[in-house]
Amino acid sequence: MEEKICQSCGMAMKAREDFAQNQDGSLNEEYCRYCMKDGAFTADCTMEEMVEHNLEFLDEFNKDSGSQIFREEARAEMLRYFPTLKRWKA
Q1: Assessment of whether the complete model's pTM goes beyond 0.85
Q2: What is the pLDDT of residues 28-40, one digit of tens each?
């Protein structure tokens, strides 16, 4: 399966189980299973709230990627990137 990026949180979706399901049970290839369930978003939040939520996983990201990205750097990068995602486009 082709890797896609969740259009809400920016997570890389690599395996079938990473993808959300639509209300009819079909695969949703735009959003991850954490951001959408049964065709609806799992959280009613702003883009800024999503960025803050993602920052909770920064230590795990750094460990898995071998990076050492600091919180403010990650926040700034997400605030630049998220407006390009479908859910947050103005």
Answers
A1: yes
A2: 999 999 999 999 9
